[in-house]
Amino acid sequence: MKTYLIDKYGDQSAVRAAEMPDPEPGADDVLVKIHAASVNPLDFKIRDGDFKLILPYRLPLVLGNDLAGVVVRVGSAVTRFAVGDEVYARPDKDRIGTFAELIAVHQNDLAHKPATLTMAEAASLPLVALTSWQALVERAQVQPGQKVLIHAGSGGVGTIALQLARHLGAHVATTASAANAALVKELGADVVIDYRTQDFEEHLDGYDVVLDTQGGKTLEKSLRVLKPGGKVISIAGPPDADLARELGTNPVLRQVMNALSFRTRRHAKRRGVTYSFLFMKADGEQLRAITRLVDAGKIRPVVDRVFPFEQTREAMEYAEKGRARAGKVVIAMA
């Protein structure tokens, strides 16, 4: 099968097209012919080797973290899917590789594609929708009337998190450019802070939850807009010991990760709030709940541009350089 992979960690020059053997599905696996995949910041971090200590992949490694496609074969123990089903997924972190023509996915990580979406639209969703769900529903347990700040509302995670927060009944604020203000309001933002001309810390206060997609100074300031007992959930800040435990890392690495987030957690504790790092996980059941919201019109994907499969490297470069106006960059295999 055709793929885009890396033989060594590095920058964009490390990514190349290559032929690889077709995957052989196990008893619980579903073999999917990939019709579309989307580009995520996680792809760049994996390519660069940023996660090699906690995710020790064997090279060569096919990149790509979410997909939509059609089932072409099922393992002997598969009960939820049949050949011909249209599906989408974020494969397990140990079984990535969606920049390819085929992939074997465990049935527990797969869901039927929303009927209302094209393959390209469906492929844009799994990673960012699961991230939003696990942050707002699972971890923050957002309740109606709570105040939620979602950074970078026009980004891949932001466009979905805004809609989910609105569905949960939250009062939602976001940061975005003036050019995207109308879009993020349409998606669910009650308050829009123009990050180019306004400091969100000076305009927002008393928030219950912040979903941080930026890290750095934005994360530091986010701690200060929370009310006592509030939560910052970050996908861009320093990892913590809970993540190390989740990933089953060794005690030494656990201590290292704990040390990386020590300063942030100390600042949070002094303000009577909490900080946690979220590394989203594959979950077919949560994806099925997201499918229901999509088909009910509660969540819609935002796709900036679709590239053909042979332009995968260009798609990655386009996304990495921040050229997307809003939402996701998608790669179409078929």
Automatic annotation (TrEMBL):
Enzyme Commission number: 1.1.1.-
Top enzyme category: oxidoreductase
UniProt key word Membrane: no
Entry keyword set: Oxidoreductase, Transit peptide
Keyword Cell membrane carried by entry: no
CDD domains hit by this protein: MDR_like_2
Limits of the Enoyl reductase (ER) domain: 10-331
PROSITE patterns: QOR_ZETA_CRYSTAL
SUPFAM superfamilies (UniProt xref): GroES-like, NAD(P)-binding Rossmann-fold domains
Gene Ontology MF term list: oxidoreductase activity; zinc ion binding
Pfam family, one: ADH_zinc_N_2
Family named by the database record: Belongs to the zinc-containing alcohol dehydrogenase family. Quinone oxidoreductase subfamily.
Name this protein carries in UniProt: Zinc-containing alcohol dehydrogenase quinone oxidoreductase
Organism per entry: Streptomyces venezuelae (strain ATCC 10712 / CBS 650.69 / DSM 40230 / JCM 4526 / NBRC 13096 / PD 04745)
